[in-house]
Amino acid sequence: MKIIDTHCDALLKLQEAKRGKRYNVEPLNFTDSVEIETNVHRLQEGNVLAQFFAIFIFPDVLSDEKWQHALEQIDLFYTEILGKNPAMKHIKKWEDLDDLKDGEIGAVLTLEGADAFGNDLSKLRHLYRLGVLSIGLTWNNPNLCADGAGEPRGAGLTELGKEVVLLNNEHQVFTDVSHLSEKGFWDVLELSDYVIASHSNTRAFCDHPRNLTDEQIKAVIEKNGLIHVVFYAEFIKKDGQSASYSELFDHIDHIISLGGVKNIGFGSDFDGIDRYIVGLEDSSKYPNLVNELLKKYTEEEVRGFTSENFLNNRPKLKV
User: Fold this and answer.
1) In degrees to the nearest 10, what's the CA dihedral of 203, 205, 206, 208?
2) Region 74-80: what's the mean pLDDT?
3) Res 23: pLDDT
4) Is the pLDDT of residue 316 over 90?
5) Rg of the Cα atoms in the chain
6) φ, ψ for residue 52 (rounded to 5)?
7) How far apart are CA 196 and CA 180, in angstroms?
8) CATH code for residues 3-313
9) Percent of the chain beyond pLDDT 70?
């Protein structure tokens, strides 16, 4: 079965290697470097139809350097991921997913945190033009748009944040709620036409601020949004050094019990995590996950989780 994975941090790894801050290999090779959990060979082995690549900037990067950091990661997306790998095809609009040929893998550019553009909406419009199709307003920290899940203040969206959500609607871009404060989440649900939690699990089975409460899950389902479960062990079980398939499936079962069987997908967080599900340590291992899923769920349900729920709930052209 084909996989759509809505979150990885390969761009950050490529950037840190290029800047000499990480790894002994410079630059990393996206085709087959073992340090990259979503490299092309692994995506091919994992039968991945589309991989989402997040632009992410650490909060300690100086404000006047954040836009340059974002542009560097976008340049790496174009040069190292697309430019050197003919199998990788840029998904510039959602309909491009339908045009992928056998052997091609869709590459989707996303933004994790509005810090990159600050309060400059012309920069945001540049990101749309460059192909960003999903925007999370925050990482865990606060910024000019909203508070993140790690900010004790817990404030919601600012007027700027609300304007960004409305612009996302206009451009058929997802607003990603995975890292938002709870109040920010509810502000987005009120305004957004296209809601996704790109890499979050359930609070019911792991009480972590990065996971969703039952009320949040129900609200996303009611909006025909998407909830893509994440493979990071700490979001599967509290203080987990590793996790099992069955523990991940507890989260899936709970979302199903709330009515979300048609809203579930996967957002691995590969290249951004260091604690894994045993047997699911990189993209090449996706067939292991599919095999385990088929032991518990129907083939129709598994096809939904792997790609069809996303394809059915992605933004559609307005007529």
Assistant:
1) 0
2) 98
3) 58
4) no
5) 18
6) -90, 135
7) 12
8) 3.20.20.140
9) 97
Question: Does the pLDDT value for residue 11 go beyond 80?
Answer: yes
303 CB-contact burial (10 Å; exposed 0-12 / middle 13-18 / buried 19+): middle
pLDDT for the residue 231? 98
Q: Which residue has the tokens 């033009």?
A: 129
Assign 26 a pLDDT band (cuts: 50, 70, 90).
low
pTM of the model: 0.97
- DSSP-assigned letters across all residues of 293-318: HHHHS-HHHHHIIIIIHHHHHS----
Q: What CA–CA distance (Å, rounded) separates 97 from 5?
A: 13
The sign of the dihedral angle between the CA atoms of 149, 152, 156, 157 is negative
The token pair at 83 is 């430019």
How far apart (Å, rounded) are the C-alpha atoms in residues 149 and 201?
14
DSSP letter assigned to residue 28: -
Beta strands (DSSP E) in the chain are 3-5, 48-56, 88-90, 105-112, 132-136, 174-176, 195-197, 226-229, 264-266
The predicted-structure confidence for 149-201, as pLDDT tens digits, reads as follows 999 999 999 999 999 999 999 999 999 999 999 999 999 999 999 999 999 99
Which tokens is 50 given? 């589309």
Integer Cα distance of 122 and 145 in angstroms: 15
Please state, in angstroms and rounded to a whole number, the distance separating the CA atoms of residues 181 and 196. Answer: 15
